[in-house]
Amino acid sequence: MNGKALAILVVATAGLSVAAYLASRSGGGQSVETPAGIDAPLFPDLAKGLAAARTIEIRDGQRTVTLARGTASDPWTIRDKHGYPASDRVATLISSLASSRIIEEKTSKPERYALLGVAGASEPGSTSREITFHDESGGTLLGLIVGNAAEPGASGTRGGVFVRRRGEAPSYLATGSVVADTDPMSWLDRVVMQVDRNRLHSVRITRHEEGPVGEDPAQTPILDLVRPSESDLNFSVRNMPPGRELRAPAAADSPSQSLGYFAIEDVKPRAEVNFEASEPAGPTPGDDRAPFARATSRFTTFDGLVVTVRVTKQGGVHWAAIDVAFDENEVVPEGERPEGAAPSKRKPIDEVRKEASELAGRLGPWAFAISEWNARQLAGRLTDLLKPVEKPETVGPQKPDGVVDSPPPVQGPG
């Protein structure tokens, strides 16, 4: 059966359902009973199975991801990412399974499963995804094969998703949608930290250069930035070389943007990355900025939060390690706020202590793969923020006033 024939079948089935419903509502017709199982929960015993579940395996024809937990009260983690904590998407998956109800029964014939996308994930050409809950011993508690989405139609066809319970022949059209991605990174929060730029008081970047940086003071491996008060719009350079100036008033703000939306591309245990070394990096064609170098960035906020980020490059990937602490000595005393200034972003000290402890525990054990752009921000060099030095024009030797060049003497014959 081709796609067009399937569409006709769905429409015809929906039309029969509508006709039966209208007949049951009309005064002169005989009522039609709802078939057994229709409008019943897709998984009536989900709560019982979930309590015993220790892993959730999601697979398609190409790959498998496994979510795991030690006990029923433990949070879910991603086994394929070294046990990194999973996001709220796991709760969303479970909620969607718990709330899904059967709209109508579809085919029980294996040769027609492919039309609805409910053939097993291991079947050739299958586009389905299989979700299986396992208990502590690896036994199967319950499973679902998720097929194609069914779009609502003008003829009365209800939207939903085609599914088939593991080990059963009948397939169903069920309510809702079930998101079952097999990419391990889709099950974690990619944004691991967000520190409002307006909270930042200082940024100090130390590039661990492998060779000399030159005699020019602007080539220093240290970039020291500060925003003296919360009312200051831009950062300034503490170690500005004499006679130099920024490319633009906000040029020194770029490193401070790194923590505002710290997104990651991969994760692994910190012990697996050597942050004391880095692959050599040459200049990027068409980019006049300093090449990437292994670096340490230290950010402080007005309310005492200290975030230290180390970046390196290993195996062609930029990795970052993040340490977070509270330092009472970094709390900047509040002065008088200018009239019309933006509200303070400061948090109470106890709240900052708690924030630092939570971030340190969550981020400390891990190394995070980040984009090259973010890595370059975290390894910025002072010279990249400054206007180029204007070279003086080359001028020939000057003649005393009143002296003019004479034409060369004419040579006579012989």
Question: What's this, in brief?
Answer:
This protein is of the alpha+beta class. It contains six helices and 19 strands.
Number of strands: 19
**Major sheet summary line:** 9 strands, antiparallel
What is the CA-atom radius of gyration, in angstroms?
33 Å
SSE order: HHEEEEHEHEEEEEEEEEEEEEHEH
Shape: elongated
Strand order of the largest sheet: 4-3-2-1-6-7-8-9-5
Count the domains: 2
Please tell me the overall pLDDT: 85
Beta-strand percentage? 25-35%
**What structural class is derived from the secondary structure elements?**
alpha+beta
- Termini separation: 110 Å
Number of helices: 6
Poorly predicted parts: 1-34
Helix content: 10-25%
Structure notes:
- This protein is of the alpha+beta class and 414 residues long.
- The chain has two domains: 35-182, no CATH class; 191-332 and 347-385, no CATH class.
- The chain has six helices and 19 strands.
- The strands form three sheets. A nine-stranded antiparallel beta sheet has the order 4-3-2-1-6-7-8-9-5, with helices on one face. An eight-stranded antiparallel beta sheet has the order 13-12-11-16-17-18-19-15. It has a two-stranded antiparallel ribbon with strand order 10-14.
- The longest helix is centred in the N-terminal third of the chain and has 23 residues, at 3-25.
- The protein is elongated, with a radius of gyration of 33 Å.
- It starts with a helix and ends in a 37-residue tail after the last helix.
- Residues 1-34 have low confidence and may be disordered.
What's the layout of helices and strands?
Elements: H1 3-25, H2 46-52, E1 55-59, E2 64-68, E3 77-78, E4 84-85, H3 89-99, E5 102-105, H4 113-116, E6 129-134, E7 140-150, E8 160-165, E9 172-174, E10 191-193, E11 200-207, E12 222-226, E13 236-237, E14 262-263, E15 266-269, E16 295-301, E17 303-314, E18 317-331, H5 349-363, E19 366-370, H6 372-377
Antiparallel strand pairs: 1-2, 1-6, 2-3, 3-4, 5-9, 6-7, 7-8, 8-9, 10-14, 11-12, 11-16, 12-13, 15-19, 16-17, 17-18, 18-19
